[in-house]
Automatic annotation (TrEMBL):
Keywords: Kinase, Transferase. Residues 398-459 form the TGS domain. This is GTP pyrophosphokinase. It holds the Pfam family RelA_AH_RIS. It comes from the Bacteria. Residues 57-156 form the HD domain. Residues 640-713 form the ACT domain. GO terms for biological process: guanosine tetraphosphate metabolic process; nucleobase-containing small molecule interconversion; response to starvation. One of its GO terms (cellular component) is plasma membrane. Belongs to the relA/spoT family. GO terms for molecular function: GTP diphosphokinase activity; guanosine-3',5'-bis(diphosphate) 3'-diphosphatase activity; kinase activity. PANTHER family: BIFUNCTIONAL (P)PPGPP SYNTHASE_HYDROLASE SPOT, GUANOSINE-3',5'-BIS DIPHOSPHATE 3'-PYROPHOSPHOHYDROLASE. It comes from Nitrosomonas halophila.
Length: 714
């Protein structure tokens, strides 16, 4: 493709003319020349291409650059916006972009481009991998996400030409991912428009109904809102404040969310209007707050000071809800001019203000911390879909603010627990946490935190993450760190178990495992197509490969092998970790006759010999292993017991007391009552069959016990 001349730029579209006019207000002539070059190149690359709307394709990149010019972004970002689709949709390479417009523009274009040249198993995998790459690029340069958000915003504005099912899919993705990212980066105008458009195309009928109801309410309340606005202005003038006061209608999507969350009809959502007060400095914010609290009575619990404690995206403002005339709730936001600018443009303010601006520096520090967290989540995640799951959790802004023992403030999402706090402090603190002290009192790790809590985490060097934590943690960072740790531990344990299973198979063929040479292993690993010997051993433990088959393939031609392999058993020590699982259908304990079943992706599962699962597996003899208990096992195992008792007051207390006296803990309990009798089912911690027998003997001596025994199958 020959490079177009600058003279070709004369044939611009009205939209391009408007773009160049707007950027001339703040860009230098050299920057505008770069932008015009990018426009000419993009127009040539997209020549002959049209959008679904019927417009020439060049109108889309021009519109994206126009959205970004409203944020006063630099010429490099605007040029990348004009070129953001040429690598994906035309024959232009990243290197050609770099040669013509510089490495910075090329990197931004590449960060936004999709991975359409990579094969994925499903559409979900492709979307997740695209998003993963985009966020990785964003962590290096946030302008990648600014371009992507502007790209998504223009696509949403023109989404009406798409098929309804595609509209809903894109709108859902916008509401779940892109709008929260815009909010996280402080781009409030883009955030709200993405939400409104996402709502419109996700629920078109509901949107139309709310638009109609909102217009009717606006007419009914116009006079009241006008009086409130004038009263606020007069009150601020009375206290000598020079303030800009504006009234605004709450966005339809936020009204809809409130209706859904609180099960309200539109007529019951009273606070659909808000007022914003912009003053010159911080002290004036608090003076204005006091003045307005004197004008209208504040509603308890509805005040938030985001100036003293800014949001994670750097947003600062005072929020208060007041009870206005006729019982109408009024939302008030009070902020300085600089705070207002950052609230509107977020991280984009970096390219308008200089880095010496302390407020913007603080904003970017917080943004960089969030991006650093993204990279940690990215490195801990097993695949793109899992990464996307974690990141969706963290996209929504922090709702609570808690304190470390040193007085540092941490922002966490609503519903966060002490475990989330521990991982927010440091991954190592989370991995080793064993208890928490909240406001000076001991508390379980699953305790949900509240704003203002002072949290101290108790750690132990030998402690490890508990899989049960995944059921209640609220942050993506905690979830991905726990999964990463558990996956690493399980892999190491699986390698060890796989080696034991393979050695058993080799021995059953009469071959000493020590005689297998490294060349035999290298050939086998290469033939099977795994990365390493350890990966193959882990696959054996997880049931993806059969030990007997691998053993036969390790045997060299001409090796003396027994035609009828002997039986040898795997010894179960109880210390195998997550590589060996004990079935919950029969709860095997030391002293029971046991059988091992290899389940694909679950590994070795231990059952009692009389378990129904073993009987059902008789056709798959290759997946069944002989296993025996080792000696001197020093751990507890769960076991199920049932009891039928006379339904009298206090009987449960007597039963639990006897269980405690027998040196056992209760993991779970279920009760079924009728008029005369009650059936109790317990899961207890026991060391072996003898320990269980002692527990049952103590329980037999309780007068109300009619029948008891071990639960064999469930």
């Amino acid at each position: 493709m020959s490079r177009p001349s600058l003279a070709d730029c004369e044939a611009t579209t009205p939209e391009a003319d408007l773009l160049f006019y707007e950027v001339s207000k703040y860009l230098k002539s050299d920057d505008i020349a770069l932008l015009k070059n990018a426009y000419v190149f993009s127009r040539g690359a997209h020549a002959g291409q049209f959008r679904k709307t019927g417009e020439p394709y060049i109108t889309h990149p021009v519109a994206v650059a126009g959205i970004l010019s409203e944020l006063h972004l630099d010429a490099v970002t605007l040029s990348a916006a004009l070129l953001h689709d040429v690598v994906e949709d035309t024959g232009v390479s990243k290197q050609e972009i770099s040669d013509r417009f510089g490495a910075s523009v090329a990197e931004l274009v590449d960060g936004v481009s999709k991975l359409d040249r990579i094969e994925f198993q499903t559409k979900a995998d492709m979307q997740a991998e695209n998003f993963r790459k985009m966020l990785l690029a964003m962590a290096q340069d946030v302008r990648v996400m600014l371009i992507k958000l502007a790209d998504r915003l223009h696509n949403m504005r023109t989404l009406g030409v798409m098929r309804p099912e595609k509209q809903r899919r894109i709108a859902k993705e916008t509401l779940e991912i892109y709008a929260p990212i815009a909010h996280r980066l402080g781009l409030e105008n883009i955030y709200h428009e993405l939400q409104e458009l996402g709502f419109c195309f996700s629920y078109p009928t509901r949107y139309k109904v709310l638009v109609k109801a909102s217009k009717a309410a606006r007419g009914n309340r116009r006079e009241v809102v006008g009086k409130i606005l004038e009263a606020i202005k007069q009150r601020l003038r009375d206290v000598g404040l020079d303030a800009v006061v504006t009234g605004r209608e709450k966005h339809l999507y936020s009204i809809y969310k409130k209706m859904v969350e609180k099960q309200l009809s539109f007529s019951n959502v009273l606070d659909i209007y808000g007022f914003r007060v912009v003053v010159k400095d911080v002290s004036s914010c608090y003076v204005a707050l006091g003045a307005l609290h004197g004008l209208y009575r504040p509603i308890p619990g509805k005040f938030k000071d985001y100036i003293a404690i800014p949001k994670a995206n750097g947003y600062q403002s005072l929020h208060s809800t007041l009870l206005g005339p006729y019982g109408l709730p009024i939302e008030i936001q009070i902020r300085t001019r600089d705070m207002h600018h950052i609230a509107e443009t977020g991280v984009a303010s970096h390219w308008l203000y200089k880095s010496s601006d302390a407020e913007v520096d603080d904003l970017h520090l917080k943004t960089n911390q969030w991006m650093k967290g993204l990279l940690e989540t990215l490195s801990d995640s097993f695949d793109s879909l899992e990464f996307l799951e974690h990141i969706k959790v963290d996209l929504f802004p922090g709702e609570i603010y808690v304190f470390t023992p040193q007085g540092k403030i941490l922002a966490l999402p609503r519903g966060a627990t002490a475990v989330d706090f521990a991982y927010a402090v440091h991954t190592d603190v989370g991995n080793c946490c064993v208890a928490a002290r909240i406001n000076g009192e001991n508390a379980p790790l699953r305790t949900r935190l509240k704003s203002g809590d002072r949290v101290e985490i108790v750690t132990a060097p030998a402690a490890k993450p508990n899989p049960a934590w995944l059921t209640y943690v609220a942050t993506g960072r905690a979830r991905s760190s726990i999964r990463h740790f558990l996956r690493t531990i399980q892999y190491d344990e699986s390698v060890k178990l796989g080696e034991r299973l393979l050695n058993q198979a080799l021995s059953s063929f009469g071959l000493d495992p020590e005689t297998v040479s490294s060349s035999q292993w290298e050939k086998l690993v290469r033939d099977i197509g795994v990365k390493s010997k350890d990966e193959l051993l882990a696959d054996i433990a997880l049931g993806k490969q059969l030990a007997a088959v691998i053993a036969k393939r390790l045997i060299m031609p001409g090796e003396s092998v027994s035609d009828h392999p002997g039986k040898s058993s795997i010894t179960i020590l109880g210390t195998e970790g997550m590589a060996v699982k004990f079935a919950k259908c029969c709860y095997p304990i030391p002293g029971d006759g046991i059988v091992g079943l290899i389940k694909k992706d679950r590994g070795l599962v231990i059952h009692t010999q009389d378990c129904l699962a073993v009987a059902k597996n008789h056709k798959n003899a290759d997946s069944q292993l002989d296993v025996v208990w080792g000696r001197d096992i020093n751990r507890s195992f769960p076991v199920g017991i049932f009891m039928v008792v006379v339904n009298k007051s206090g009987v449960l207390a007597r039963v639990t007391t006897e269980i405690a006296k027998a040196d056992s803990n209760i993991d779970d309990i279920a009760l079924e009552n009728d008029k005369d009798y009650a059936t109790m089912r317990f899961v207890l911690q026991t060391r072996d069959r003898r320990h269980l027998a002692r527990i049952l003997r103590r329980l037999k001596h309780i007068e109300e016990v009619v029948k008891l025994g071990r639960i064999r199958h469930q």
